[in-house]
Amino acid sequence: MSPETLTIILSAIGVVLTLTTSLFAAGAWMVRRIDDRIDAVDEKLSTRIDAVDEKLSTRIDAVDEKLSTRIDAVDDKLSARIDAIATDVTDLKIAVARLEGPPRHLLTASR
């Protein structure tokens, strides 16, 4: 093999190795940069999500308290109305029983 051919082959191998090493290093650098940016974005998003979660929890608790108060008030009103209706129904039953009553003993029932 001539020295020129050997030099060309060795130069080609050197160029390929240099390009491969440079591409590998560039890829590793890009991955590291992407990881750093993802970590920064993840930290920012986690902070924002935690803040929104806290705000929503506070609002939900406030709404829950208001609704509980309103539901209790409506429950008390309905209970009072149901009790009043139950009393009215009892009075009505007594009145109907008095109207129907037992048959009179002095009058004979016609059959």
Describe the protein's architecture and organization:
The structure is a single chain. This protein is mostly helical and 111 residues long. It is 88% helix and 0% strand. The chain has one helix at residues 3-100. The longest helix is centred in the middle third of the chain and has 98 residues, at 3-100. The mean pLDDT is 88.
Provide key terms for this protein.
111 residues, mainly alpha, 1 helix, 88% helix
What's the oligomerization state? single chain
Structural class: mainly alpha
* Cα Rg: 46 Å
Helix content: over 70%
From the N-terminal CA to the C-terminal CA, the straight-line distance is: 141 Å
| Total of helices | 1
Major sheet size, sense and barrel closure: none
Q: Tell me the fraction of residues in β-strands, as a range.
A: under 5%
Low-confidence stretches: none
> What's the shape?
rod-shaped
Instruction: Say how many strands there are.
Output: 0
Task: Sketch the topology as an H/E string, one letter per element.
Answer: H
Overall pLDDT: 88
